[in-house]
From TrEMBL:
Organism (species): Coprinellus micaceus (Glistening ink-cap mushroom)
The protein's name in its UniProt record: P-loop containing nucleoside triphosphate hydrolase protein
Ranges of residues in domain ABC transporter: 234-514
Keywords, ordered alphabetically: Hydrolase, Transport
Similarity annotation: Belongs to the ABC transporter superfamily.
């Protein structure tokens, strides 16, 4: 019998765990039988399950908290912005929409305790406000008032953007438990901000602020006089995506991405960011039918010089070539990456980034592909560069950079013991945050002409976030020939400023515009 006591909303891998969304490319293709269950139908099923569960118990026996009333159900959907999505198949929901649906599902069952793991991650600003408002309303509700246990990253609780200690914790939070390495503190919110935060961050723990974005040197050195001189990496003109002949998601989008560019792709949940990026990565079937969708066709095997910036239409680029031209980390990729592949180590996972593949290809640096692709004279050089590059990213983002205060070695001088041990670990033995860092290494390792970083910080611990920020700021993470697109709903997570050359592309109601 299920426990009526609590319900939770895990921060990630929800689609896999729930069996509701298992293959991230499936959502772009034709729906298969069983894929077309709508959000409304799923909620109806849950309510029916609750009715059955209630009928098996007498009221007051403590085994069920009572069915949600019709009016409250409607209000719940409304307050999470789900009403217009009831007729949408589960598989077609965007990330933020899925997260909101999962939170509603948890609340529908009216548990006594709700566990929320980083509930604001992946939500746009409006949805974050709506959720906080909903959780706040439970405090004064006479019909349903659950206890809420919710985890947040420090930046969602303390004003991180400005490096200040201002309390920005969501309004409904009354008590805070703080966990960091060997420090544990728990108590009322006022005491946390009144005393603990100030004391804790004064006592030598200031690096959490010092490494924030906005410090250090610019990360966008460029070898071109003006941006327009830089070669194109992606060229989209008048791109459209329509579903079922009527749902227009992208309407005449034109976007040019050039070498050295740093882009922030913006837009509310469901505005089409993932769809647009899936056209660029070639995962979306409609990428083949676009009139003008030019993508980077060339391997970038050894160095920036190895890249020839000649664009080609999606139809003309073999998928493996396109995959090796674009480094990606996204929630979809995180869910789909086959980390349970028997024996897959960190090293194996990182090196799949050279080909943008999921399965390690052979021995060593997985360079079966090297033999296939490169001529005799070039193979050794390619192998050598790839091995060196794997160690570089492992050193830069491995445990030396976030686990404790050890000073990491200069990249290229060989890997430290901690890094070697980390490289050998099975990826399944890592925490979720560690797995994210490894998949970020995978996206960066090939020095691909285009790197797409979609919500890369979610699930990472504070120390990891700071290590990644520091790496991006160091100028070593990206070469001049690389273009980077960052997707996040948090401005403070974007690693560059406008002064450093950052540009923004916003999607709204199907249209796209540069800001
Ligand atoms: N196969 C499909 N059929 C119908 N609609 C779809 C399909 N796939 C996606 N959509 C819709 O396309 C819209 C855009 O989704 P997309 O995932 O691109 O949004 P997003 O901007 O990435 O959102 P988020 O910020 O939540 O990640 C959503 O409203 C989604 O429901």
């Amino acid at each position: 019998m299920r426990s009526p006591g609590s319900s939770s909303c895990p921060s990630d891998t929800p689609r896999v765990a729930a069996g509701e969304f298992y293959d991230y490319t499936a959502r772009y293709g034709a729906m298969r039988d069983g894929d077309d269950k709508t959000l409304g139908e799923r909620f109806d099923e849950i309510l029916q399950e609750e009715r059955v569960h209630m009928s098996e118990h007498t009221p007051g026996d403590g085994q069920h908290p009572g069915l949600i009333e019709e009016r409250e159900y409607r209000e719940l959907l409304e307050s999470l912005g789900l009403t217009p999505l009831l007729s949408v198949p589960l598989i077609a929901l965007s990330n933020g929409q899925t997260r909101r649906a999962r939170i509603a599902r948890a609340i529908l069952r009216r548990p006594d305790i709700i566990l929320l793991d980083e509930p604001l991650t992946g939500l746009d600003i409006e949805s974050r406000d709506r959720l906080v408002h909903l959780l706040q309303s439970f405090k004064t509700s006479t019909t349903y008032s659950p206890s809420i246990l919710s985890s947040y990253r420090l930046q969602e609780v303390v004003d991180h953007l400005h490096g200040s200690l201002k309390d920005v914790a969501p309004a409904f939070v009354s008590h805070i438990a703080f966990l960091e390495k060997d420090t544990f503190w728990a108590g009322p919110r006022d005491e946390f901000f009144g005393d603990f935060v100030k004391r804790h961050f004064k006592e030598g723990n200031t690096e959490v602020w010092a490494n924030g974005f906005g410090t250090g040197s610019a990360g966008t050195p460029k070898g071109w006089k003006t941006r327009e001189d830089a070669p194109l990496v992606v060229d989209l003109q008048g791109v459209n995506v329509v579903y079922q002949g009527k749902r227009k998601i992208l309407d005449q989008i034109s976007w040019q991405i050039r070498q050295g560019d740093r882009w922030h792709l913006k837009g509310q949940n469901g505005s089409g960011k993932t769809t647009l990026l899936s056209l660029i990565t070639g995962d979306h079937p409609q990428s083949y039918v676009q009139k003008h969708l030019l993508l980077p066709p060339t391997f970038s095997p050894t160095s920036p010089q190895g890249f020839t910036p000649t664009l080609a239409h999606r139809k003309r680029i073999p998928t493996p070539v396109l995959k090796s031209s674009i480094g990606v980390l996204s929630p979809e990729l995180f869910d789909a990456f086959p980390r349970r592949e028997p024996g897959m180590s960190v090293w194996d996972a990182v090196q799949t980034g050279f080909g943008g593949v999921f399965v390690p290809a052979g021995e060593g640096v997985g360079m079966a592909s090297v033999d296939d692709i490169f001529e005799d004279g070039k193979r050794d050089e390619v192998r050598e560069w790839r091995v060196k590059r794997c160690w570089e990213v492992l050193e830069a983002l491995g445990p030396n950079s976030w686990a404790d205060k050890q000073v990491s070695q200069t990249p290229g001088e060989g890997a430290s013991e901690a890094t070697e041990a980390f490289a050998a670990r099975p990826i399944t033995s890592l925490t979720q945050g560690e797995q994210r860092v490894v998949l970020l290494m995978r996206a960066l390792v090939g020095r691909a002409p285009l790197v797409i970083l979609d919500e890369v910080w979610s699930g990472m611990e504070e120390g990891m976030i700071n290590a990644v920020k520091a790496y991006f700021k160091s100028g070593r993470a990206f070469g001049d020939h690389q273009a980077v697109v960052v997707v996040t709903h948090w401005e403070e997570e974007v690693p560059w400023t406008r002064e450093e050359g950052l540009q923004s592309f916003r999607l709204e109601k199907g249209y796209g515009k540069t800001e």
